Write a sequence for this structure.
């Protein structure tokens, strides 16, 4: 379904290396593999939610991640982290980028906050709607909706 969703957005691809990796999979391992494949000088961005930035120091080998990719932080509802670097963890503040073009000047190491309109959509809610026989139009890309309906995924016994 990820491939179906990505096919609708030019420039998006799906990478299944984490599914193919034996054992535990950590973001830092994926970024190391991507960095080796892409080379050291190509900018690489990791998109995370503001809630993830707040808890970033709990991630496996978190100190290494900024040397592998820029962090693009997306606003989350109910997060105390905002576009103001003063709300960021202390380690992230000196890495603040003001504009997206700042990320092209180096391959990794910067943090930028991006305002997006949060969408109150979760996989759990989509599955529940399907199970109740409700429409998921507009909640998932049309190709994904078609796949779910065609293969009768997430259906309850009564629907």
């Amino acid at each position: 379904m990820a491939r179906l969703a990505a096919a609708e957005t030019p420039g998006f691809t799906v990478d299944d290396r984490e599914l193919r990796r034996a054992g535990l999979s950590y973001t830092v391992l994926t970024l190391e593999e991507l960095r080796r494949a892409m080379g050291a000088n190509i900018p690489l961005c990791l998109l995370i939610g503001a809630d993830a930035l707040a808890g970033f120091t709990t991630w496996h080998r978190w100190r290494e991640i900024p040397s592998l990719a820029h962090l693009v932080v997306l606003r989350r509802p109910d997060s105390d982290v905002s576009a103001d670097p003063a709300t960021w963890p202390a380690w992230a503040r000196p890495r603040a980028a003001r504009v997206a073009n700042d990320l092209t000047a180096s391959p990794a190491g910067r943090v930028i906050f991006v305002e997006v309109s949060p969408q109150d959509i979760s996989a759990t809610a989509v599955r529940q709607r399907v199970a109740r026989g409700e429409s998921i139009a507009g909640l998932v890309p049309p190709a994904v909706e078609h796949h779910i309906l065609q293969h009768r995924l997430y259906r309850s016994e009564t629907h």
Observations:
- Strands lie at 45-49, 70-74, 111-114.
- The longest strand covers residues 45-49.
